[in-house]
Fold this protein.
Amino acid sequence: MRIVCWLLLALCLAAPAAGRERPLPDPGDITAVQVVGPSWSGFTNLDGTGLYHEILSAVFGLYGIGYIREYAPSERAYHMVRSETADMMTCHDKPPRGLMLAETPMYEGDYHVFFNRRNIGAWSMPGSLKDRSIAWRIGYYDEGNIPVPMRHKELKSGVSALGMVVLGRIDFYLDDLNFIQDSIRKNTIPFDMADFRIEPIGRRGYFPVLKDTARGRKIRELYDQGMRHLARTGRLEPIFARWGFPLPAALR
């Protein structure tokens, strides 16, 4: 009986401790975070709306830290983080040269190919891709993202890559589904969507990019712990739902 009482007492004492939310880290002297990257529809809209804008405002708002956004092409954004004229670039799946990634993805999803169904014929993965030609935007993908050998080309925009497929100059355009749809909306070359097809060929997470300095490591800590706190307290999932994206698996 005495053993049972001691066990019950131990459980009662442990329960509140387990239920308590861990304290967030002290932001120290960081009062604002400068974030750079392109304007992506649904993620970083030019009017200040989008998934990434909302996430970062919520994360750094936990600490009373300001969130400042500057729009820049990906390669320029990486240079700004390397030169410490910006703190963070959003987002990429692999650490660019001389930089590091946060531990927690800001987005996770499939990437797709857009192609002419008459050119490719019956679709199969990965057989339909092998030894074909493929295009993506500069810096967005690399050979590691495609499962078989292909001839690849990097172009300045998704619209250019989509146009190359429509004109029959390349077999596939590779991108996130959201960006393929945006490229279709912005395209000016007439085509019938019934002649084309979009299929997923892989999945990856997208992480904030930072420089491995004391400040960069601190901002990464604030971001990672802030994301986990928002997920645990149920505040993160509604942000993803508002923009029509699933919560990354690591945060469920």
Remarks:
- The chain is about 35% helix and 25% strand.
